[in-house]
Amino acid sequence: MAESLNNSGTASGFSIDEGEVARFSALAAKWWDVKGEFAPLHRFNPTRVRFIRDTCLDHFGRDDLALKERSVSAKRNPRRAFEGLRLLDVGCGGGLLSEPMCRMGFTVTGLDASEKNIGTAKAHAEEGGLDIRYLNQTVEQLAASGEVLFDVVLTMEVIEHVVDPDAFLKTCASLVKPGGLLFVATLNRSLKAYALAIIGAEYVLNWVPKGTHDWSKFLSPSEIRQFLDGTPLLPDPAVGVEFNPLTQQWGLSDDTEVNYMMVARYPVTAAF
Ligand SMILES: C[S@@+](CC[C@H](N)C(=O)[O-])C[C@H]1O[C@@H](n2cnc3c(N)ncnc32)[C@H](O)[C@@H]1O
Ligand SMILES: [Mg+2]
């Protein structure tokens, strides 16, 4: 592991909780096992990929472009709709989101604090012939390196695993270019989330290993909004992601009590 990543609490690596990163590293080989420890991420991946795609098609006006270019709706055929746009996937794990984003045409950088995760992600992208730039870095290191800003920054299911979520999110926001978007997904610190995401998913259904989540690190949508105060990004209302036990499917929902996603937009005219 790179030296700078061993120093939890240092300026360069300060968002890292070593115990959390070690837990994900230990599972690095399992990212693409659809029946393994990351099965829940695989199951709700289509819902969040669709949400990101539809939000971006709308925001960047790429529906029209794709229509002109291919004479089919980009919603039906989103292939390469985002050509020319730079996307950063913060805490990319094995690349479950980076890969579909690359397939839709984004120029993707995936970043993770775990060297092993980055190894898995790189190997899987190579097998699939996908050109993704994967970095074993923290978002603080990338921000400090003078990186060109991104049209889209994703931080999905990561913020509940970092040391200082406020500073972490502000650093993620600082990498969004004017006119760009930040996506955040996490779990709400509600009793319902305790019942479903901790007791249900970890202890009753065994969907994820016990100890995957610490309820006290879950965040409410209003906390996410507060973290973005003082940045030029303006958050949309949170959108719930809900599992329907009858259909056994995940989908978008008005209920943000358990899993939710939030989009924040950087207006072109605002200045940091
Ligand atoms: C639940 S996984 C989510 C992976 C991916 N975003 C997804 O949704 O498929 C959380 C990931 O965040 C990474 N991580 C945890 N703390 C981090 C930090 N401070 N900086 C960067 N990555 C971090 C872990 O190594 C792990 O790969
Ligand atoms: Mg999580």
TrEMBL record:
Domain of life: Bacteria
Amino acids binding S-adenosyl-L-methionine: 48, 91, 112, 156
Pfam families: Methyltransf_23
Entry-linked CDD domains: AdoMet_MTases
EC number in record: 2.1.1.222, 2.1.1.64
Reaction catalysed by this enzyme: a 3-(all-trans-polyprenyl)benzene-1,2-diol + S-adenosyl-L-methionine = a 2-methoxy-6-(all-trans-polyprenyl)phenol + S-adenosyl-L-homocysteine + H(+); a 3-demethylubiquinol + S-adenosyl-L-methionine = a ubiquinol + S-adenosyl-L-homocysteine + H(+)
Pathway noted in the entry: Cofactor biosynthesis; ubiquinone biosynthesis
GO biological-process terms attached to the record: methylation
Coiled-coil regions listed: none
GO molecular function: 2-polyprenyl-6-hydroxyphenol methylase activity; 3-demethylubiquinol 3-O-methyltransferase activity; polyprenyldihydroxybenzoate methyltransferase activity
Enzymatic class: transferase
Entry keyword set: Methyltransferase, S-adenosyl-L-methionine, Transferase, Ubiquinone, Ubiquinone biosynthesis
Role played: O-methyltransferase that catalyzes the 2 O-methylation steps in the ubiquinone biosynthetic pathway.
Similarity section: Belongs to the methyltransferase superfamily. UbiG/COQ3 family.
Family matches, as NCBIfam families: UbiG (TIGR01983)
Protein name as annotated: Ubiquinone biosynthesis O-methyltransferase
Upper taxonomic lineage: Bacteria, Pseudomonadati, Pseudomonadota, Alphaproteobacteria, Caulobacterales
Gene from which this protein is expressed: ubiG
